[in-house]
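Notes from the 1:1 (GR / supervisor)

We went over the backlog. Supervisor wanted to see one worked example end to end before approving the batch request, so GR pasted a single chain during the call. The sequence is below; no edits were made to it. Supervisor asked that the structure be written out right there so they could see what the output format looks like.
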Amino acid sequence: MDIIPLGYLTAEPGTLFLMGSNLTVYCHVFKCEPRCTLYLELNNRGVTLSRNMNCTTTVFYLREVWTQRSKVVCTMDCKKQSVREVVSGLDLKAGFPPDKPTDISCETTKSWDSINCSLRRGRDTYLRTLFNISVHRENETIFNVTQNGEEISIPRSIMDENTEYTLTATAYNHFGASRSDPFIFSVKDIVIPETPRIVRMEFMNDSTSAELQWESSESSMDFILQIRLLANNSTSEYREVAEFSEGLIRLENLRPLTEYQFQIKTCASKSRQAQRSLCSKWSPSVRKKSPGKGPSQQLHVWRMIGKQTNGLKNVTVFWKPPSFEDYSGELKMYSIYLDKSHKECAAASNHCSVQAPEGLRALSVSAITSYGASPPAVVDLRHAGASGASLGKVASMADGSSVHVSWSSTVGKDLLYFIVEWKSEPADVLQWKKVDKHIKGTTITGLMAGVMYNLSLYSVTSRGVSDPASRLIYSKELKPLAAPMFHMEEKNGQILVRWDELPSHQQRGFITKYTFYWQTPDSNSRELSVMVSGSSQRQIWLDCPGGLKAIQMTASNSAGEGPQRKGTIIPPPETTVRLVVVILFTMIVFVAIVANLMCWSCVRKRIKQKCIAWGPKWLMDNLPKPGHSNAIRLLEDDRSEPLFSTIYSDPPLSPILVISEEEEEERDEVYPAIHVEESLVGSDQTPDTTTILVQYSSYKPQIAALVPLEEEANNAEEELRDVQENTEEDRCLLGFEGLLGELFSDKDLDYSHNSHQIPLCFTGDLLLPKTAATSTLQGIHLDEMGGKEEDVENSVSSVDLQQVEKKTLDSDDSSSCPFSVDTIQSSGYFPQVAPLSAMTGETLR
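Structure output shown during the call:
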């Protein structure tokens, strides 16, 4: 430290001391400072154990110092200063006394000019330690040297080949000295072989062996060779090898793609004095990386032969992938070799299908890697006949994951190996295992409890593959998941129960029995049961004279009984046929009735009326169309005469009279009711008179269609015939009032005067009776009556209203009007009478 010392330090027993000793350090200052305190730090850590001797000296005690090199610094802390001042420092060194030198050895070769000796110095003393080497011959010292190292070189020229010498080594340092045991030797006993040299090294094709060629200046006949291998700079491996040829050594069990460092040395026989092997120095190292390794073992292969088509049979070839220790690099693919062709299969697969000719006896499989191919594994396609092996006991493990299978075999010397094959039911991926021919059992792993497996054993011989010895097994049975589906038929007081086989994935074991549970009305809620063997026919008769309440069925295996399932009784076939016939007959009758009803026009009309009544009124409202009015057309053309006059004209416009509520009672005077009478002559020539009161409606010229009067008269006659026909059809409805009363309840029909009714129809703007006793003048029928027009009007107005017979008009039949009259006005114009087409839903009185 570059400081101006304020004092000095001393240590006892000294600055160089034995490791682990206690030290006492004194800190002295040149000037007494009463307000200052002295502190000591050992390797930057404060020392707390101290004592003040006087104003200028403080003693510090250090316990068991084990550090090789240490430093102590004394500082002074004064109140008038903010930081401590350094007084002085001291370096300390600790060490051990030297151990006794051991393992002294000396060696030389025939060609060396010196003898090389070495020793082991023991533990490190942490101090400078010197060694004194002396060689004595009897009482004479011929060699003496002091040096720091452990290797000593003694000139060979000062020694005799056959004389014995004694060598001693003394180690000493600050804390003492130690002498070794004497080492006695002669030159001829310490001569070692010459150092060999590796001249060539090559790896073999399989990358797991190497061949070394070495040489030495001496003959190798009496030497033992040792090899030191260092793989990828890891721990060295020593091997003792022998020559298979002069100067050649082969090393086995090497790893591919590994960098090796090789060294070799030769060892002679043991010396009589040293009782140890005399070996040469290790040769200079040779480095080389081993190449990749191709598979060296044949694949385990198997096959499954399928159907034959067009002289070719489908063969699925299976194989086990090679172990990772058997090859290096990348597995590229598998190759299947047939007679004159081959097929390449993906490296990730474990099977492949090929088309093999019918006469092909065998094929082979190899694994192709980046460093070579495995030896071909032969797959025999021949069939050797009956199997010479039989399966024995199958023992399951507790967890159900594996089973042990044993077998016996009578196959002779041509047996090559066994193949154990298994797959779950229903059919799953095929699994298999190759077993040596000397082994009569194996363990199958990877199984699942409750799953059925089909186990097969094949014997592969030099003559081909035998037939399999097969068996169904479970690694562990579990309770069934369900009961079978079953059906029941009742016959003569007995119940025939038939059931289906339970699917294998629901059995989960070998079914040993089926159990039926049922109750009858007289069993007093006591459940009856019957058991059926699992190997019997899947049907049973149950005697149940009183009938059944319920029946359930269960399936059982060695693990226990599964859940119950309820069954259904199937009716006898005769009952089923009768039920079908009744249903068909009912449907035919119903369809026939509906078809007949739909063919009657009256039914259609009343259905249509019912739909109109149930629907909104605005849907069927026939709104006036002003564009059809001749009055409007005349108003538009009143300034000019039409080019051609028309025979059709609207009545002259009448003034509109507004009637108040007070004048409501006088409404009949404004729009009088018209009484129309008509006399008819019956078959007995007796006149019959019918009177009807017609209430006129408002004038709606926009609705009436413009039809010539002659055409209207013709249409009226046709409509009269339609009305008579419809009247006959309406009579048929009287018998269906109970069936269709709800549909036609709003329509009342009166046929009391059918023989005398004369329809009264509207043609254009006129009310026309259709009868043969009237005369026709352009569609207007007038009765031959006497009197003037005024008398007619008076007679009409005097008709008794009690004679009015109320009728209901069909809204759809605008041309037929089933009303009879006794008298018809012979002349006169009634503008209040609306056409029948505009009187839908109104009542004529």
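Supervisor's comment: The radius of gyration is 67 Å.
Batch request approved.
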